[in-house]
What we know:
CATH class: Mainly Beta
Number of domains: 1
Shape: globular
CATH topology: Methylamine Dehydrogenase, Chain H
Helix content: under 10%
Radius of gyration: 23 Å
Number of strands: 30
Amino acid sequence: MCKWFAGRYVRIFVALGMACAVAGAPALNVAASTGVEHAVSVAPLALAGPSMQLKATAIAVGQFYSCALTTETTVKCWGDDLHGQLGDGQSGAGTLSSTPVQVTGLISVTAIAAGGYHTCALLEDGTVKCWGFNNFGQLGNGASGAGIATPVSVIGLTGVTAITAGDAHTCALAGGSVYCWGQSQYGRLGNGNLSSGINNTPVAVSNLLSVTAIAAGGGHTCALKLGGSVQCWGYNLYGQLGDGLKLNLSSPMTDTGLISATAVIAGGYHSCALTDIHGVKCWGDNAEGQLGDNSAPTNHLTPVDVINLTSGVSAITGGRSHTCALMTSTGVKCWGSNQKGQLGDGTNVTQENYPTNNVSGLSSGVKSIAGGTLSNQHTCALLLSGSVMCWGYNYYGQLGNGASGAGTDSNTPVDVADFLTRIFLPMVMVSP
């Protein structure tokens, strides 16, 4: 008896010798090759093909949601939509999407950033648009208050080359200088203000020039400078500024002592840098092993080496209490908190204090990784094929595989719907 597949597109799970025939198509006897004497007919599925695949070029992970930039320079997001952070015009309690939805009215995007409950996009013309939660003015449109469920323009920004989003603030890099907006508490905007006020339009970060990359965390921000030094400012209770102290800073004052960094990331309350010899150094909160030096729960006020990662790393990302590294030859490794499976190694251990296992099924073909910031407990990977896979916490559908709710977490990567690798396959039926 023959059964039809419900979907038109499938991943590559094809076994030779299993076939079905399409009524009305010419018969082909395959008894000699299969040992099964059935008449077989083959009819191609005309609409299938590699050109039908939606491909991603970049990914970003926020708190309980995820986003991807597509080859069409548009953005799709999935997961929690409480404050409109998916950008599809929807918002409210219980609002979510467990598969990607299109951000409304957004094209010509070159980069994306996801924060606590807000998302931003860098456009080809060097301007920025944001959407989602705006209680602290983190959308930069001159207002603050309720969330905005479709993109709005950030006021007064041009020539932007990079963006980053923290829990309640956002920053942009333009001409080697950094501009931030949103909540100013703890000094996270870097403009000399330590108060808990609001800046709903961009302000310049003081005493900072020649910046090449930026990263915003839960309540702090870091900048990579030309030459490889790193400076951070904002919240510093756990030493996440890396200057050897625990004092909050309202502007960059001293650096971390690093002189050869090539990339920097900011997690919830910790920070990490990739060095010019492809090693990883981290500092700050280490309560759940996210610094990777096997000293948890001891925090570190200055950078320490991650065990087994002094070389061979091409990219890094950090979540609330976990960190991941993309290796040059052995896939992805994650360490720190694993309460929701965000380490992706198939285990249910509470935490790993340094990198041990690889993320399951991602031994090669990974282009980039994203781990989020504050309270985030999931991780995503962009594959060279343009597919996206995510793992960890999934109550709000942030893994993007069509599931949500209790019991849907995954400690290994799952495919994000709409970004599956698809191939042309004939539709075949075997007569009884």
